[in-house]
Amino acid sequence: MQRNTLMFILALGLFLPACSQTERSGKTIANPTFKVVKSDDEWKKQLTPIQYKVLREKGTEIAFSGEYWDNHKKGTYVCAACQLPLFDSQTKFESGTGWPSFYKPISENAVLKVGDDSHGMVRDEIICSQCGGHLGHVFDDGPKPTGLRYCMNSAALKFEQKK
Q1: Which of 120-125's residues contact partners 24+ apart within 8 Å by CB, and which partners?
Q2: Of 12, 63, 113, 116, which has the fewest beta carbons less than 10 angstroms from its beta carbon?
């Protein structure tokens, strides 16, 4: 195996656990309904290719590649698909994972938790409560006061800076 390939595999092994398996906790939603419903063609026209991949196909952007993982400005993070306010910058923290991380959503009704057993893992997916867009996952290794880490994809978010 070439040295570069081996280094890539080792580096990948360091980053994948950051947003991977954890014990599930709390209430999950089985079959949610949404206020904003569009066809795949409508979503494809509205979203960029990476936004569509993440929000509609449950993709994940590469760690440290997204626009907001290192954003320290004050403001609100909204859903990139429907503009629902999701997270306040005051709840954002440095998780070291390469994805924007928050310890709580802006309100209890902003996001929904859905069981996710894809890729051989058992974890909780976080989706937008208004349009059902995939945002990321939540884990039980966050800071106080909640102990949660909402590990979100930058592509699923838009940032509205406070003036």
Answers
A1: 121/20, 121/21, 122/21, 122/23, 122/24, 123/20, 123/21, 123/22, 123/24, 124/22, 124/24, 124/25, 124/26, 124/28, 125/58
A2: 12
Question: Is the separation of the CB atoms in 68 and 154 below 8 Å?
Answer: yes
Q: Is the pTM of this model over 0.85?
A: no
Beta bridge partners of 85: 78
Query: With 50 as the cut, is the pLDDT of residue 149 above it?
Result: yes
For residue 122, the SS3 value is coil
Alpha-carbon distance of 123 to 113, in angstroms, equals 10
* 139 and 130 Cβ atoms separated by less than 8 Å: no
Q: pLDDT tens across 33-86, in order?
A: 888 989 999 999 999 999 999 999 999 999 999 999 999 999 999 999 999 999
Between vectors from CA 108 to CA 102 and to CA 114, what angle results, nearest 5°? Answer: 80
